[in-house]
Amino acid sequence: MLEEINNLFEAPLGIWEAIIRIGLSLIASIIAYFLYQIFYGSKHIGAGVNRTFLVGGPAITMLFLVIQTSIPLGVGLLGALSFVRFRTPIKDPAEIGFLLLLIAASIGAATGNLLAVAILYGIVFLTLLIQRLFSNRITLFGRGHLMVYVDSASFPAIEKKMTAFLQEHLRGLSLETMSTLDNRIGLNYQYRRQSGYDWASFINELNQLAGATKVEVFID
């Protein structure tokens, strides 16, 4: 009986090596989690995919470890997972980048390419840091967020007028995301912040422009 139990834990990879690689994957997942929070989490426009990082990273690493040590078992596991459909909404394309970073680090930990993972994280960190400095310091303008929600049925009638109004009143306006939920269209914009801007008048004029159409505005 003891011999059968020992054989169960005797894998081609080795139990301690598996523990080390999964542990390194967890560390990489924690780093990815904090990168998401520092450079993206404050925007409050994503779906919060970082909540899956701490579990997803080690799980992906374990999956590739199984595939490496036992091809039939790995293929069978992938076949079983194909019946599961994940519907986590991706509200902003930037979240896909963080997911790819997590997957790449997990695969790197599973295959032992730790130097490549370290280089990847270093380059990603520098890139995000330069992007942050470029958007907030070099241009000397902070970026604000404006979210506008309009009824889907009324949106086509006021779309052009509302877009022209927003471009006229907000500098550096850019549409980041557009979504539809519960018969409402949500528009998420970024703009250059302006000190002392009269937001009360802005909202009042926007409501007058919309007329009978119900418009909800959220300003960061």
Instruction: Provide the structure class.
Output: alpha+beta
Rounded mean pLDDT score = 77
Number of strands: 4
- Helix proportion range: 55-70%
Overall form = elongated
Number of domains: 2
Report the uncertain regions: 4-9
Rounded Rg? 24 Å
Tell me what portion of residues adopts beta-strand conformation: 5-15%
Biggest sheet, in brief?
4 strands, antiparallel
Total helical elements:
8
Spell out the helices and strands N to C: HHHHHHEHEEHE
Euclidean distance between termini CA atoms: 64 Å
Arrangement of strands in the largest sheet: 2-3-1-4
Plain-language structure description:
The structure is a single chain. The protein is α+β, with helices and mostly antiparallel strands. The chain folds into 2 domains: about 10-140, no CATH class; about 145-220, Alpha-Beta Plaits, CATH 3.30.70.260. Helix content is about 60%, strand content about 15%. It is built from 8 helices and 4 strands; from the N terminus they run H-H-H-H-H-H-E-H-E-E-H-E. A 4-stranded antiparallel beta sheet has the order 2-3-1-4, covered by helices on one side. Strand 2 (about 175-180) and strand 3 form a beta hairpin.
